[in-house]
Every structure is written in structure tokens, then in C-alpha cells.
Design brief:
The protein has about 325 residues and is α/β, with parallel strands linked by helices. The protein contains 12 helices and 8 strands. Strands 1, 2, 3, 4, 5, 6, 7 and 8 form an 8-stranded mixed sheet that branches.
Length: about 325
């Protein structure tokens, strides 16, 4: 008996077209699975690279790699506050952004003027025109709540600022005051601008407390001379704080007012040291013995503020990521 001839592969495929279709389907499915696996692998590799890069950016820039919001926090110091003018002058000249401004006591006064005009030259013009008599309107007839009312400072601001309300300023702003009823620090971010500054600068024992928005308010530096928390609440990523507690103001104590001011300075200097640790950069003008009530050294104080800011520029640029 002769053995049957073995059919060739082509003959088998021709004889069974369904088998060919099955082979094609298997091959196509296998190719698709391979391509899908390759795509998944590529996706995982790219994702890991992006996440790794993103984590490094996040470590360097907590705000996520975009442009940070920079807040300038201005502390109290009465006449020493003219140094704030020099700080702002250099920041503006060096194109360091100021997106938010927050102040306590004199810092709220300087901050309000700049937030209204957003011009260092205008700020300097208005601030240097300010004299002791524009702030301290003494009232010796009925000094039951304070020896000064503060109305003159409020009037000074109403006449010179374009914005009546804080909401109409050119940038987010807060004047920090102290609530006498609750003992809490209050960040005033709406309502009358001049009244908010008056409340923030109402030095206890010298100025009468200010009734504002249902609260009885006094000087913000009593509880929060470096209001960094208020700046963070307004959205600050980077906080630049100005410390006016260098040296020891000349303590002449010729009258009750100077004694009260010097005592308040000593108290706030202790609390400010702790608060300043929360700032990203601190500018410290070397004020030495500059007096709290010495309005004769305004231009010198502006120059000292400028010098301190020039020194701090490398740290500021490094923190906000600009050259």
C-alpha cells in the first residue's frame, strides 16, 4: 500500500480558509497586545520623569513653579517708619514685585500710601510732608481715653489718598489693629482706608481707641508688630518683612508720651524677634539710636532703609527666583 502524500502548508491553508483567518486574528491580537504594553511602559517612564522633575520644582518653589506672590510686611516704629520709604524705593527700582502689602502701626500708614499710589516717588513725596503735628493732635481738655484723638492723621490721609476704601487700592492691603474687647489681632482689609490706618496707629495710652466696623481698636503692634500671618491669608507665597528694632532709640523720657513709646518699643522688640522667624527674608535697617519721635531725620532714615534693602537684594532675588 502506498503511503499518502503529506499536504504542503499552502495546500492546507487553501483547503481550510477558516484556519488562515484564525492565524491572522491571533497575529493581530498579539501585535495589539504588544503595542498596548509598549504604550503603557512609555507612559509610566514619562510619568515618573515628570513627577520626579515636579517634586524637585516643588522643593525649590513651594508655589508650584509659577510666579510667586510677594508680600511686603511693614512693622511699627513711629518716626523710624520713614525707613520703610527707602525699602520700597529700592524694591521698585530693582523691579522686585510687591503684590501684597501689610502693615502695623506706622507700617500701615506707609503701606496705605504705597498701595494707593503704587509709586515710590509719590510715596516719598507724601511721607516726607508728614510732620509730628499731622499725627499727634493732642487733647488735654478731656484726655479720658487718650491724649491724642488721631483725627488729624485720618484727615491727612483723606486729603492725599485717591482711594477712600481699602477695596479700591491698587493692590491687596491690610492694616493690622488690636481688638480691645477680644484681645485679638484684626487685619482690616475692607472699609474706610483712613479709618483703618488711624486704628492701626492708635498707640494705647496716647491715642483714644478707634470705633471701626463694630469694634473698638487700638495699635496693631501691641499684639502683632510683624503681621506675617495676615500676609499669608492674603495669598503671599514669599514674605519680605522690615524690622525697625535695630539699636536702642534715644530714651529721653522728657514726658509721658516718650516714656509710653519707649516702653512699647521694648515690649514689641521681644515679640518681633519670634515673629520675624516666619518671614522668608528680613530687611533690617541699621537705625542705631534714631528716636521714635525724631521727625528731623526723615531723609536719613529713608537712606538707611535703602542701604539695608540693597544688602538684602541677593537673598530676595534668590527666594523669589529672579536674577
Amino acid at each position: 500500500m502506498s503511503r499518502a502524500a503529506t499536504p504542503s502548508p499552502n495546500e492546507v491553508l487553501k483547503a481550510t480558509p477558516s484556519l488562515r483567518r484564525e492565524i491572522d486574528c491571533c497575529y493581530t491580537a498579539r501585535m495589539r497586545r504588544g503595542l498596548l504594553a509598549l504604550r503603557i511602559l512609555s507612559f509610566l517612564i514619562i510619568s515618573c520623569a515628570v513627577l520626579s522633575c515636579g517634586s524637585r520644582v516643588a522643593r525649590l518653589m513651594p508655589w508650584g513653579g509659577g510666579t510667586p506672590k510677594v508680600a511686603l510686611v511693614l512693622t511699627g516704629g513711629v518716626a523710624r517708619g520713614f525707613a520703610h520709604v527707602g525699602v520700597i524705593r529700592v524694591l521698585e527700582r530693582q523691579k522686585i514685585p510687591i503684590d501684597i502689602i501689610v502693615g502695623a502701626d506706622t507700617g500701615s500708614l506707609i503701606g496705605a500710601i504705597y498701595a494707593d499710589r503704587k509709586s515710590a516717588s509719590e510715596l516719598e513725596r507724601i511721607a516726607l510732608a508728614l510732620e509730628e503735628g499731622d499725627i499727634f493732635d493732642y487733647n488735654f481738655i478731656n484726655p479720658t481715653q487718650g491724649f491724642a484723638r488721631g483725627e488729624r492723621l485720618e484727615d491727612f490721609l483723606v486729603k492725599r489718598l485717591t482711594a477712600r476704601d481699602i477695596e479700591r487700592l491698587r493692590m491687596p492691603f491690610a492694616a493690622v489693629a488690636t481688638d480691645l474687647a477680644t484681645g485679638a489681632s484684626v487685619a482690616l482689609t475692607s472699609g474706610s482706608l483712613a479709618r483703618a490706618v488711624r486704628a492701626s496707629t492708635a498707640i494705647p495710652g496716647i491715642f483714644a481707641p478707634v470705633a471701626h466696623e463694630g469694634k473698638l481698636l487700638t495699635d496693631g503692634s501691641v499684639l502683632d508688630n510683624v503681621p506675617i500671618g495676615a500676609a499669608r491669608k492674603l495669598g503671599a507665597d514669599v514674605v519680605i518683612a522690615v524690622d525697625l528694632t535695630d539699636g536702642m532709640p534715644a530714651a529721653q523720657a522728657k514726658n509721658t508720651f516718650e516714656t509710653l513709646l519707649q516702653s512699647l518699643f521694648l515690649a514689641t522688640r521681644q515679640s518681633s524677634a519670634l515673629e520675624l522667624r516666619q518671614a522668608d527674608v528680613v530687611i533690617r535697617p541699621k537705625l542705631g539710636s534714631a528716636g521714635l519721635m525724631d521727625f528731623t531725620r526723615k531723609k536719613e532714615l529713608v537712606a538707611l532703609g535703602m542701604a539695608a534693602t540693597e544688602e538684602a537684594l541677593p537673598a530676595i532675588r534668590n527666594k523669589i527666583g529672579i536674577k
